[in-house]
Write a structure and sequence with these properties.
The protein is an alpha/beta fold. The protein has three domains: 91 residues, Arginyl tRNA synthetase N-terminal domain (Gyrase A, domain 2); 255 residues, Rossmann fold, CATH 3.40.50.620; 184 residues, Isoleucyl-tRNA Synthetase, Domain 1, CATH 1.10.730.10. The strands form five sheets. It has a five-stranded parallel β-sheet, sandwiched between helices. A four-stranded antiparallel β-sheet has the order 1-2-4-3. It has a three-stranded antiparallel β-sheet with strand order 8-9-10. Helix 10 crosses helix 11. The site of arginine (ARG) has 8 residues, from strand 11. The site of arginine has 8 residues, from strand 11.
């Protein structure tokens, strides 16, 4: 019997209240294990289902809950109906809990949760996620790392929901930094070093020429001259620029691969120099462009809740960051006809994106409403052997080598084929979990020792849980085992796990709604802790065969959900550590 409890409950409530099912489904929640106290499995929020205000318990909600509960009856699924504070609570028949949840995991496998009716009303369609977007020759700082992993998570999530996802990296590949780089390369550049380690060499050249520019005025002038040549498309300048860009991208791809991240398109600001002019013309035609007495072109944004204006053209006629973003949005509209576009950057760019979206709306861009900025806070204290983060590679190396060290110190470390590869996956999991645990917008202090701990709420703990569950399956070599006696899964630790798994679709729903990974991370950490308790108490070894079999199946289902959630986060689960 493949019934969704949520649906069964919602059907009855919607019948009694005469309300549409989709609406009722959304006001029914699985009760979190910790707060449950063993009394009920689901609760229906009366206030939200009746849509008469926020779902806090007002006195009349209590009456209504009682009134509603009085009309509902227990059936083949629901064994108990009671009322809480403004809610009606439902208990599922104990024998059905294990049967239904585990059957569903077996049937859906890694897609468990994604087929829930709770998610069926979410908009699908084409989603662009723009993330990472470092600036060539400049630092790849922690903000870029955050953008990379957060964007990857959002893209994974949208894809799992069935959206068609386009992953774009919008490089900072134009502007005065290239003027400086052009001049700097002539003075400090070395072709061999460029080939051997382009990112590092370009950064070195950039640092040197910046220092020189502070001393010598003519360096600035030559840089402007070089940029002018670039803007005019002078072949020699352009080919040098192209070479810097190509070599950098090749290098980025390698490092992204270590992270398990890829892009469908390496775009960049350089693409939109000319298209920016089209945008400016359009703004002018529409009468939106105002020229200030300093000669800059601005757009009045004072009508909405935004202050003042946005500058879109300098007095010398050149475009700005926002002008290129306007052109890029228009171009993506044409090229992809997207339904939504998500930009992931640190919160210092919040105003920039507010302005961008507002101008797009004023320009009548039909998808302006589908544009969304996901801002995140600053990370303090992330240092590597070389000091502050300059290259992504350094962060990954640091995580890996620290992890290798911890593994060598730990007595429980298994014999591994490729310890360095395992260390890389553990280190990455640690970085991701540390970063995703809180609200994205909050700043946080990074601490290697804390992030890499093997116990507690860390990525290493998730990996450890996965490896342990995997080895359990391997040890018993269960193969395709699908038959089990649900009556053997009535012990509290098993019930808690099942109860926790009931919430997975809600966790996915909240994650998409808020585009925040913390719900999923905390769900998985919770699952890991429940699995640890079950592991200690629900032995496989020494139990009668049918009990052992049921328990193994339960553990396997936990592993399947854990692995699928970890992959969404961008973590590759290890099977041994
Ligand atoms: N390259 C920019 C930076 O490092 C981020 C680009 C964000 N995306 C955009 N469409 N503006 O700050």
């Amino acid at each position: 019997m493949a019934c969704h409890f949520r649906r069964v409950i919602a059907e009855q409530v919607s019948r009694v209240l005469g309300l549409p099912l989709e609406k009722v489904v959304r006001s029914i929640r699985a009760i979190p294990v910790s707060k449950k106290g063993g009394s009920a499995d689901f609760q229906c929020f009366v206030a939200s289902v009746l849509a008469d205000g926020p779902c806090n318990a007002k006195p009349h909600h209590q009456e209504r809950a009682q009134e509603l509960a009085g009309k509902l009856v227990c059936d083949s699924v629901i064994s108990e109906i009671a009322t809480g504070r403004g809610t009606v609570t439902f208990q599922i028949r104990r024998d059905l809990l294990a049967e239904t949840v585990l059957r569903q995991v077996i049937k859906d496998g890694p897609r468990y949760g994604f087929n829930s009716e709770l998610l069926s009303g979410l908009p699908r369609g084409k989603t662009i996620v723009e993330y990472s977007s470092p600036n060539i020759a400049k630092k790849f700082h922690v903000g870029h790392l955050r953008s990379t992993i957060i964007g990857n998570f959002i893209a994974n999530l949208k894809q799992a929901l069935g959206n068609e996802v386009v992953r774009i990296n919008y490089l900072g590949d134009w502007g005065l930094q290239f003027g400086l780089l052009g001049v700097g390369f002539r003075r400090f550049g070395c072709e061999e070093k460029l080939q051997a380690n382009p990112l590092q060499h370009l950064f070195e050249v950039y640092v040197k020429i910046n220092a020189a520019a502070e001393q010598e005025e003519n360096v600035q002038l030559s840089a402007q001259e070089f940029l002018r040549k670039l803007e005019e498309g002078e072949p020699q300048a352009l080919s040098l620029w192209q070479n810097f860009r190509d070599l950098s991208i090749q290098e980025y791809i390698k490092v992204y691969k270590r992270l398990g991240v890829h892009f469908d398109d390496y775009s960049g600001e350089s693409f939109y120099r000319e298209k920016s002019e089209d945008v400016l013309r359009l703004l002018e035609q529409r009468g939106m462009l105002q020229i200030t007495n300093k000669g800059t072109g601005v757009i009045d944004l004072s009508e909405g809740d935004l202050a003042a204006h946005a500058t879109v053209v300098r007095s010398d006629g050149t475009s700005l960051y926002i002008t290129r973003d306007l052109a890029a949005a228009a171009d993506r509209m044409e090229k992809y006809n997207f339904d939504e576009m998500i930009y992931v950057t640190d919160k210092s760019q919040e105003i920039h994106f507010q302005h961008l979206f507002r101008i797009l709306t004023l320009m009548g861009c039909k998808r302006a409403e589908g544009c969304r900025h996901v801002p995140f806070g600053l990370v303090q204290g992330m240092k590597t052997r070389r000091g502050n983060v300059v290259f992504l590679e350094d962060v990954l190396d640091e995580a890996r080598s620290r992890m290798l060290h911890n593994m060598a110190m730990s007595k429980t470390t298994k014999e591994l084929e490729d310890p360095s590869d395992t260390a890389e996956k553990l280190g990455l999991a640690a970085l991701i979990v540390q970063d995703f645990k809180g609200q994205l917008l909050s700043d946080y202090h990074f601490d290697w020792d804390q992030a890499l701990q093997s116990r507690g709420d860390t990525g290493v703990f998730l990996q450890y849980t996965h490896a342990r569950l995997h080895s359990l399956q391997r040890m018993w070599d269960t193969g395709e085992l699908n038959d089990f006696d649900a009556a053997c899964l009535q012990d509290p630790p098993a019930v808690s796990i099942l109860q926790h798994l009931l919430r997975y679709d809600e966790v996915i729903y909240k994650s998409v709604e808020g585009l925040q990974p913390k719900y999923l991370v905390n769900f998985l950490l919770g699952l890991g802790h429940l699995a640890a308790v079950a592991h200690r108490t629900l032995h496989v070894k020494g139990s009668p065969p049918h009990v052992a079999q049921a328990r193994l199946l339960l553990f396997n289902c936990v592993r399947v959900v854990l692995a699928s959630g970890m992959k969404l986060l961008g973590i590759t689960p290890v099977i041994k550590m």
